[in-house]
Amino acid sequence: MAVERTFSIIKPDATARNLTGAINAMIEQSGLRIVAQKRIRITREQAQTFYAVHSQRPFFGELVDFMMSGPVVVQVLEGENAIARYRELMGATDPSKAAEGTIRKAHAASIGENSVHGSDAVETAAIEIAQFFAGNEIVG
Ligand code: DAT
Ligand code: MG
């Protein structure tokens, strides 16, 4: 195992319900460190680029509109095996299938509005971090 960095988004359904601190507490209690963080509004172009892998899926338009529907908090999380650990802490994409103790089980409303994003691999983590953060904004 190695120290990794993963990219996280606290999505608009969560910021709307004032859950940034509650989610950050779950992240920090899990042992992951928040080494970069900013609250932004995502542009249509940013959302389309970010989710380009899903551009042919029927829910793509809805997904882009949702990501633009309110503020998001973009973050870089650091720790041993951070990518897999954050995926585990997030829980399943569909919150009705998410395990007890996960962020999505605790907070997510639906498969579309599921409160958090986390990178799924080393390569995608690097690409996603670079889309939203300059190197000097990440303080480990
Ligand atoms: P994850 O966010 O768990 O990595 P994903 O990469 O498969 O899941 O999909 C990205 C996002 O797209 C997901 O968080 C919510 C949305 N999405 C996925 N499947 C969906 C579906 N069947 N209906 C509506 N939105 C969906
Ligand atoms: Mg994904």
Walkthrough of the structure:
This protein starts with a strand and ends in an 8-residue tail after the last helix. It has a 4-stranded antiparallel beta sheet, with helices on both faces. With 140 residues, the chain is α+β, with helices and mostly antiparallel strands. Helix content is 39%, strand content 20%. It has one domain (3-132): Nucleoside diphosphate kinase-like domain (Alpha-Beta Plaits, 2-Layer Sandwich). It binds 2'-deoxyadenosine-5'-diphosphate and magnesium ion. Residues 54, 59, 63, 93, 111-112, 114, 117, 120 line the site of 2'-deoxyadenosine-5'-diphosphate (DAT). 2'-deoxyadenosine-5'-diphosphate binds next to loops. Belongs to the NDK family. Its cofactor is Mg(2+). It comes from Rhodoplanes roseus.
Q: How far apart are the first and last residues' alpha carbons, in Å?
A: 18 Å
Structural class: alpha+beta
Strand content: 15-25%
Total number of β-strand segments? Answer: 4
Average pLDDT level = 98
Q: Give the fraction of residues assigned to helices.
A: 25-40%
User: What's the CATH superfamily, by name?
Assistant: Nucleoside diphosphate kinase-like domain
Secondary-structure element series: EHHEHHEHHEH
Catalytic activity: a 2'-deoxyribonucleoside 5'-diphosphate + ATP = a 2'-deoxyribonucleoside 5'-triphosphate + ADP; a ribonucleoside 5'-diphosphate + ATP = a ribonucleoside 5'-triphosphate + ADP
Main location: cytoplasm
Protein name: Nucleoside diphosphate kinase
Subunit structure: Homotetramer.
